Amino acid sequence: MSRLNEILKPLRPDKTNRLRVILLCIFAATTFWFLNALNENYSTSLKYPLQFIYDKENYIAVDELPEYVQVNVSGLGWNLFRSSLGIKVTPLKIVLDEPAAVKKITGGTIPALISDQMNDVQLNYVLTDTLYLNIDLRTTKTFAVRVDSAGISLDNNHRIVTQVRYTPDSVTLEGPQSILRKMSDTLLIRIPRQDIDTEFNEDVAVTSPGNDLIKRMPPTVRVTFGVEEFVARTEVIPLKTDNFPEDGNAYIQVNDVRLEFMAAQSKAESLNLEDFSAVVDFKKMDNADSTIAPELTKYPGFIQDIRLDTTKVKVYFNEE
Fold it and tell me: Which of 45, 92, 102, 125 is deepest in the core (most CB within 10 A)?
């Protein structure tokens, strides 16, 4: 008897095998029930993709158009299951003959636009209350351009030493009419680079409101300008007199003035006293206090931030 048991033992299912059989039976039954259930009719709510048909050559969507419409439909379980997964779902087409004139589509009017396109299911009602649209006429406009020189970021002690040049001097924009009409007739070109310390010669992007919707022709402007480092300098300049009485009755006691300024480093060492001239003009004397403001009448064109340490010079008169 023990010998027979040993022979039949491999043929007897153990606990693991019995569990596998039970699970396979449950899976088969569930699959059979699910497939059978899909052959029944049901009602459910689904999101159907939308496609708006309009003249995209002459019109442009300012805001993103609605992508879906929420509807309640009835149909065979197979069709509803496929639609819920988005498998082979053809977008519902809404034709817009005058796109710029349509700002919204109310839920009550949507069934007439889409019901005849739902072949596999029956439309019961629309859950979406309103579809909001913002489509505008596509147009073009030419704008003058100007570089925002005041907004250029320079490194410490660096200055612009040449005229800021740019080309072209105008650009043409294509986009929504409502955006282009609100814009100024001149586009401001801003230099994005920071802490510029060398000559600038780059293409700078043309930007505008609604930049993603705007086509720019050309998209960039070539901007060039020279940049140099400036250093602080001081010069003591002889003070000349002009139009004073020849008889020497009027005179000043100040012989020179101190001039503080910033000079381009490449030219600072070449400066000499002959490059400067300061004058006090007797005809410009303030009679109230007998003073004259000194004037710097000659100085190199490459210096900046000029400041005289003497604002007024006293005029003295000889007593007769």
Answer: 92
